[in-house]
Amino acid sequence: MKWLVLASLATTLAQAQIQRVAPHADLAKRQAASPSSTSHAAATRTATGAATATRSPAHTGGGGAVPSSPLASLTKIGTATTAEATQPLPTTFAAGATPPVKGAPPLPAINQLNPAHYPPLDRIPPLDSPEVKQWLSEIDLSNIPSVNPTAIGGCANATNAQAIKDGGADGNCWWTCGGCSRASDITYCPNKNDWGASFDDGPSPYTPRLLNLLESQNLKSTFFIVGSRALSRPEMVQAEYMLGHQLSIHTWSHSSLTTLSNEEIVAELGWTKKVIHDITGVSPNTMRPPFGDIDDRVRYIALQMGLRPVIWTQYQDQVFDTRDWQIGGGVVNATGVYNTFNNFLTHAVQNLPNGFIVLAHDLYQQSVDLAVDYILPGVINAGQLKIKTIGACLGESPEQLYIETASNSSSADSDPLLQTTSTFVGATGTGFVPGIALEAQQTSSPASGSSKGKNLEASKSGSSANAQQTGNTSGAMAVKAGGAGGLFAATMLALAYLL
Question: Is this entry keyworded Cell wall biogenesis/degradation (predicted)?
Answer without folding.
Answer: yes
